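Deliverable D5.2: sample structural annotation.
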Amino acid sequence: MKRVITLCILSCLAGVTQAHEGAEGVIKERMDRFKENKESMKAIKANLGGDTSIIAKEALAIKAWATQMTDFFPEGSTQSPSEALPAIWENFEDFKARATANAKAAGDLADLARSGADTSALTNGLKALGKTCKDCHNDYKE
């Protein structure tokens, strides 16, 4: 089970650890926010079966970013080192729907953590959250 979670998180975060060297403006801001997301995902994973208040806090941080995410993708913000694909702007409504799905999954995980759900339910919530990341990255990230 832990291996599945690790694979889910790794695929969700693939490329986020790339150096931000040369990034500026909105591109640097969004890269920094995705890096914060990576840290939140790590904290959630580390606390499965542990402190659910941390899981809730980090999931809510992910939700907050997801609700703002599309604002950090103005048209034309593709300068290196951005890994955003032009498909984002070609299918912006779908991109927004994916950000909404990410926010919902993060909110659902926070709700589970606050309700005292067991480790199995929290694990499934983390998997669902990771899937929203992966689905978006598959279509919209180099």
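Annotation notes: Helices lie at 2-13, 25-46, 52-68, 87-90, 92-115, 119-140. The radius of gyration is 15 Å.
The annotation will be released with the project's public dataset once the embargo ends.
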